[in-house]
């Protein structure tokens, strides 16, 4: 058996396809609270955003197929709701013990924000 050296991963960024990078960057910055790390070209056709330690990239796309990205965060619901974010699923406690809510961006991509729940799951209640 040969030994394989593991690659060192220093970061990760999901890439979402959007129709208008400039408009979606403004939405993520102004409504969802992301920091813009960079944009590429003028008008922008690619952008890098950050929310805490999480990176998200946006790429010009005409595919029109929405995607989903999950963030592990706490205490964002009220802030995003107050900013006018499009909440597509209010806070629920899921059977896998995560308290989560979903937000849609301008292209229908869904961002799932979740945090561990201390609530017992239905399975635990019946044991």
Question: What is the gist of this entry?
Answer:
This protein is of the alpha/beta class and 127 residues long. Helix content is 16%, strand content 41%.
Description:
- The chain has 127 residues and is of the alpha/beta class.
- The chain has a single domain, classed as 2,3-Dihydroxybiphenyl 1,2-Dioxygenase, domain 1.
- The chain has three helices and eight strands, in the order E-H-E-E-E-E-H-E-E-E-H.
- It has helices spanning 21-30, 77-82, 122-125; strands at residues 13-18, 35-40, 46-51, 54-60, 68-72, 86-93, 98-104, 110-116.
- The strands form two sheets. Strands 1-4-3-2 form a four-stranded mixed sheet, covered by helices on one side.
- The N and C termini lie far apart (45 Å).
- The model is unreliable at 121-127 (pLDDT under 50).
How far the N terminus sits from the C terminus, by CA atoms, comes to 45 Å
Strand segment tally? 8
Q: What is the gyration radius calculated from CA atoms?
A: 17 Å
Per the CATH scheme, the topology name is: 2,3-Dihydroxybiphenyl 1,2-Dioxygenase, domain 1
Average residue-wise pLDDT? 89
CATH class: Alpha Beta
Please specify the SSE layout and strand pairing.
Blueprint: E1 13-18, H1 21-30, E2 35-40, E3 46-51, E4 54-60, E5 68-72, H2 77-82, E6 86-93, E7 98-104, E8 110-116, H3 122-125
Parallel strand pairs: 1-4, 5-8
Antiparallel strand pairs: 2-3, 3-4, 6-7, 7-8
């Amino acid at each position: 058996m040969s030994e394989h050296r593991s690659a060192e991963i220093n970061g990760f960024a999901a890439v979402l396809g959007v129709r208008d990078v400039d408009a979606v960057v403004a939405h993520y910055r102004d409504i969802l609270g992301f920091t813009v790390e960079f944009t590429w070209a003028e008008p922008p056709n690619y952008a890098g955003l950050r929310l805490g330690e999480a990176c998200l990239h946006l790429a010009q796309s005409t595919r029109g197929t929405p995607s989903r990205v999950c963030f592990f965060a706490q205490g964002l619901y009220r802030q995003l709701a107050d900013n006018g974010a499009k909440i597509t699923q209010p806070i629920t406690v899921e059977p896998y013990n995560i308290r989560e809510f979903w937000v849609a961006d301008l292209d229908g991509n869904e961002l799932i924000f979740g945090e561990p729940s201390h609530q017992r799951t239905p399975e635990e209640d019946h044991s």
